[in-house]
Amino acid sequence: MKLSRRKFILIAGSSTVIVAAGKAAIDLDKMPSTAIAAWSESRQPELDIRKRVLSYAILAPNPHNMQPWIVDLRQPGQINLYCDRTRLLPQTDPFSRQILIGYGAFLELLDIAASAEGYRADITNFPQGEFGDRVDERPVASIRLVPDTKRERDPLFQQILHRRSTKVPFDRSKSLLPEHGQGLATAYSNSDCKLTIATDPARVRGLQGVLQSGMEIEMRTPRTHQESVDLMRIGASEVEQNRNGISLTGASISLGRLFGMVNRTKLADPTSSAFQSGVTMYRDITAATPAFAWITTSRNTRSTQLAVGRAYARLNLQATALGVAMHPMTQVLQEYAEMRALQRGFLAMLEIPAGHTVQMLVRLGYAERPGSFAPSGVVGFAVIVECYE
């Protein structure tokens, strides 16, 4: 059966929210408050436990903030989770490995939120079978929420509304504290998702170079860069209308738009100042990184990818609790032809065993200010399906 978006319930916080269209322009292209309402700690009562936990799950980290979640609540007491195949990344994520990692993060936040309600989440991955090389119409997971008076509230729950990816240069004068590295190592217990943290200066310099090269390959490969450009929401008005994708807001964006220096044509043109500014920005970001971490698995099944996402979500929440800034930069892990040579060198540098997969790669450090919240929880991006067509 084909899932329909004709009828939906929008979750933002733990209540139903209707977002009005056609809002006035916002001075200096600030992030619209309605676009990040789902991150608010002010939450209205909601009788359906499924909607309460889903209001946290939709805040999961996911590639390019695509938010491809489709949730079917037609069966009482059950959540069926699907993937919106119009919100995949065929150029930079051709096998949807990163998308599935995002779904794992979604499931982990859902489970953590269930613990705060005195429930456990009985999750069945791929109840109709795992995807092959391509995502299809079958469910990613089915979930039943079961009251469990013995279950304790997960301490990471209180970090969900504060979690974010900090995409800025980190403080070069501050190395990752050993106790923080140890704390990150305890974020999850799944031994199939091996976490490695690098703080050695020589190793860090090598990784800085790899990440810079990976970003430049993606940006200088027209089809992969165009995929990102097409998903950029430039200015507050576009963010207001499209709550997924890559948000570009703030005074500099406003001025750039005013003078015709920031638009999709300029951002896609390697000779433009807007493009060159992006290259310089990421060079500065990668150079200002005192530590890196990566998650490796011996298998690369779809269930493994979900497990990685669950582990990564906990790692991100633990970093938030410790005051450690985290920023995923996974260009070198992407599976397209132009990235293969760099990826081979990267795997050799880290001495990754043959057949193993580096699933996630992140920057670690300290930032004066946390990163901004990603737009989330709006019509068409967190959909509760009530019917089939």
Beta-strand content estimate: 15-25%
Determine the N-to-C terminus distance.
Answer: 7 Å
The total of helices stands at 11
CATH architecture assignment of the largest domain: 3-Layer(aba) Sandwich
Counted up, domains total 2
Report the sheet with the most strands, covering strand number, pairing sense and barrel closure: 5 strands, mixed
Please give the radius of gyration in angstroms.
20 Å
- CATH fold call of the largest domain: NADH Oxidase
Helix content: 25-40%
Strand order across the biggest sheet?
5-6-4-3-13
Give the helices and strands as they follow along the chain: EEHEEHEEHEHHEHEHHHEHEHEE
Within CATH, the superfamily of the largest domain carries the name: NADH Oxidase
Q: Give the class-level CATH name of the largest domain.
A: Alpha Beta
Please describe what this structure looks like.
The N and C termini lie close together (7 Å). The chain is an alpha+beta fold. It has helices at 49-57, 97-116, 178-185, 201-220, 222-230, 236-241, 251-258, 264-268, 273-287, 302-322, 340-349, and strands at 11-12, 15-16, 69-72, 78-83, 119-125, 141-147, 194-198, 232-234, 246-248, 291-297, 325-328, 357-365, 383-385. The chain has a 5-stranded mixed β-sheet with strand order 5-6-4-3-13, covered by helices on one side. Strand 1 and strand 2 (15-16) form a beta hairpin.
